[in-house]
């Protein structure tokens, strides 16, 4: 299998080169030339596998045997050794129609750990094999940064710089990043929002001379390996649902900001996983909901919410969906992305909107609705939702139909967002790993949203 760009101007690449490229050199996103199909018989065989075994089966369809099986298995074993659940992503049933997929059992208590622990091992493996220093550059709305830093801290041959929006992440998210004192880690706290940070990251990757000179590698979900790693738990979750003689349709509700997680589900569905509805759950920064309901993809007014990891207006992975929506026509993708850049919006026809609504449903939860659901589910089920998970549950309540089952993703542990939990008059006990963060010193550089100053800090860090 080879990998190509959504914009059509990158020669086909192998798996390792695709991961190392991150953002495609033509500004697009890398995707497989062909999506492998998994038969019903194979799905049945996979249904009894452990999470790690399933991961190996999914990845084997995409790696072109560039990584020996024993090496891949070692990376997978190391990646999930620190997870607090032997199932990696356990499923909990709350009622007859709602299951919760818990994605927060990794070292930083968020779903990003599932992919980024593997990416850390992968980059370390490649650095040793190629005898090259890897410089990772990423932006975070909160969880990606902590998970990425945890995945590579202290590893030889790797340096990582993460940009996060100053005072626009939760305190625990900030502490998870900035209490790390390893010499290969730099935290830049940028006076702006996540979209500002993400735009700068994309610009540096689009500067091919800068990218090559500093050997830049991506950790954000612009990197296809993030998408692929996340697709595994869609299969795993689906297989955990016990179906009787009359199986019900299975929906998935996914808290969504950058469109990476929900696109992983779209990939799994294209591979043959029989998901009925892919439900996009957003907060008040609801560009994705507006697109699904109106056909207009246009950034709106930025709002800070109780679910800061979803406080995103421009969703990077939306371009990957556009590629398939537009019949894998790279020229049309480029035209749409140019429209977004030049006109600030993408607008599709009423006929095309019907097709989008066949792929997705969507619901945006308000801050008030999220807090209400946190209180309600704690009272009725003794289950504490974090504010992002509450958005997913809100979308389940809005979009799940009769005689349908929904798997709603719990993307973070509630301890990461105690600011919201306290507003519900709920006192939670912090895990020891989070509690101890508050006694540690922080290491970060607060910096203006100034490209020249930020690039200066990057260069100094990478060249020291």
UniProtKB/TrEMBL annotation:
Keywords: Amino-acid biosynthesis, Lyase, Pyridoxal phosphate. InterPro entries: Ser/Thr_deHydtase_PyrdxlP-BS, Thr_synth_N, Thr_synth_N_sf, Thr_synthase-like, Threonine_Synthase, TrpB-like_PALP_sf. Its EC number is 4.2.3.1. Gene3D superfamilies: 3.40.50.1100, Threonine synthase, N-terminal domain (3.90.1380.10). SUPFAM superfamilies: Tryptophan synthase beta subunit-like PLP-dependent enzymes. GO terms for molecular function: pyridoxal phosphate binding; threonine synthase activity. Residues 2-80 form the Threonine synthase N-terminal domain. Pathway: Amino-acid biosynthesis. GO terms for biological process: threonine biosynthetic process. The modification N6-(pyridoxal phosphate)lysine is found at residue 112. CDD domains: Thr-synth_2 (cd01560). It is an enzyme of class 4 (lyase). It catalyses: O-phospho-L-homoserine + H2O = L-threonine + phosphate. Its cofactor is pyridoxal 5'-phosphate. Belongs to the threonine synthase family. PANTHER family: THREONINE SYNTHASE FAMILY MEMBER, THREONINE SYNTHASE-LIKE 2. Catalyzes the gamma-elimination of phosphate from L-phosphohomoserine and the beta-addition of water to produce L-threonine. This is Threonine synthase. It comes from Paenibacillus glacialis.
């Amino acid at each position: 299998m080879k990998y190509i760009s959504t914009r059509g101007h990158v020669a086909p690449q192998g798996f390792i080169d695709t991961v190392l490229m991150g953002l495609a050199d033509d500004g697009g996103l890398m995707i497989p030339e062909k999506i492998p199909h998994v038969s019903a018989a194979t799905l049945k065989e996979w249904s009894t596998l452990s999470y790690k075994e399933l991961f190996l089966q999914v990845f084997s369809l995409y790696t072109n045997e560039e990584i020996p099986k024993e090496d891949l298995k070692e990376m997978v074993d190391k990646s999930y050794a620190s997870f607090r659940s032997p199932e990696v992503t356990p499923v909990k049933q709350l009622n007859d129609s709602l299951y919760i997929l818990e994605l927060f059992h990794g070292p930083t208590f968020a779903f990003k750990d599932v992919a980024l622990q593997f990416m850390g091992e992968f980059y370390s493996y490649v650095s040793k094999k190629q005898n090259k220093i890897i410089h990772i550059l990423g932006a975070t709305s909160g969880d990606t940064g902590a998970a990425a830093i945890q995945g590579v801290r202290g590893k030889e041959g790797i340096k990582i710089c993460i940009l996060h929006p100053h005072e626009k992440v939760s305190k625990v998210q900030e502490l998870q990043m900035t209490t790390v004192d390893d010499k290969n880690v730099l935290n830049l706290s940028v006076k702006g929002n996540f979209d500002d940070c993400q735009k700068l990251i994309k610009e540096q990757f689009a500067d091919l001379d800068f990218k090559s000179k500093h050997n830049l590698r991506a950790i954000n979900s612009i990197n296809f390996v993030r998408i692929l790693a996340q697709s595994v738990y869609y299969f795993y979750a689906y297989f955990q649902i016990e179906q009787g003689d009359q199986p019900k349709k299975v929906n998935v509700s996914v808290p969504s900001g950058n469109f990476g997680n929900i696109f992983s589900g779209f990939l799994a569905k294209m591979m043959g996983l029989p998901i009925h509805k892919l439900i996009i759950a957003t907060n008040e920064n609801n560009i994705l909901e507006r697109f699904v309901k109106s056909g207009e993809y246009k950034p709106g007014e930025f709002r800070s919410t109780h679910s800061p990891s979803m406080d995103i207006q421009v969703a990077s992975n939306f371009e990957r969906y556009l590629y398939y929506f537009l019949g894998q026509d790279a020229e049309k993708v480029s035209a749409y992305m140019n429209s977004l850049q030049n006109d600030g919006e993408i607008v599709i026809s009423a006929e095309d909107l019907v097709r989008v609504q066949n792929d997705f449903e969507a619901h945006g939860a308000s801050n008030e609705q999220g807090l209400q659901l946190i209180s309600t589910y704690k009272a009725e089920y003794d289950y504490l939702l974090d504010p992002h998970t509450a958005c997913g549950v809100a979308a389940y309540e809005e979009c799940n139909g009769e005689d349908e089952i929904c798997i709603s993703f719990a993307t973070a542990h509630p301890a990461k967002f105690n600011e919201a939990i306290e507003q519900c008059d709920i006192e939670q006990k912090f895990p020891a790993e989070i509690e101890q963060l508050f006694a540690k010193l922080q290491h970060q550089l607060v910096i203006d949203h100034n490209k020249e100053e930020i690039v200066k800090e990057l260069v100094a860090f990478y060249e020291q």
